[in-house]
Amino acid sequence: MPKSLPYHDFLMAQLKDPSYAAVYLETHFELDEDEEPDEALIRLALSHVAEALGQPKMPPQQYELHLKKLDELLSLQGSDTIYNLGTWLNALGLKLTVAVCTDAVCTDTEDNTLNAEVRSQLTV
């Protein structure tokens, strides 16, 4: 009988690729039209990425501080959260990027129709 990798080990192996880690986080941040953000799921996804990308390149004490900073920044309100998340991700070799929606889900709403015609990005 073939053996399989435990899911966590498999996930960590995949997330060691920064491109995969970025897509992994992107899928956790995307919401369906009537879906509410799940703070616990976002926290889990960010901690998975930190484990895969941060743990190998940070000393244990710095890695633990980085995880504590995640808890602090997710408890913040307003724009401070966004900027601190950008800084937190930079320490892992990732950046926070906002792009204009171009798929059918985003362009169906009145507010996004005009934006779909122009492609732009803002990086923090």
CA-based shape: globular
The number of strands is: 2
| Ends distance | 48 Å
Number of helices: 7
Please give the radius of gyration in angstroms.
Answer: 17 Å
**What count of structural domains?**
1
- Could you report the average pLDDT, rounded to the nearest whole number? 83
- Largest sheet entry: 2 strands, antiparallel
Which percent range fits the helix content? Answer: 55-70%
Return the string of H and E elements: HHHHHEHHE
Structure description:
The protein has helices spanning 7-15, 18-29, 39-54, 60-74, 79-90, 104-107, 110-113; strands at 97-99, 121-123. With 124 residues, it is mainly α. It has one domain (7-123). Strands 1-2 form a two-stranded antiparallel ribbon. The longest helix has 16 residues, at 39-54. The radius of gyration is 17 Å and the shape is globular.
Quick recap:
By secondary structure, the protein is mostly helical. The chain is built from seven helices and two strands.
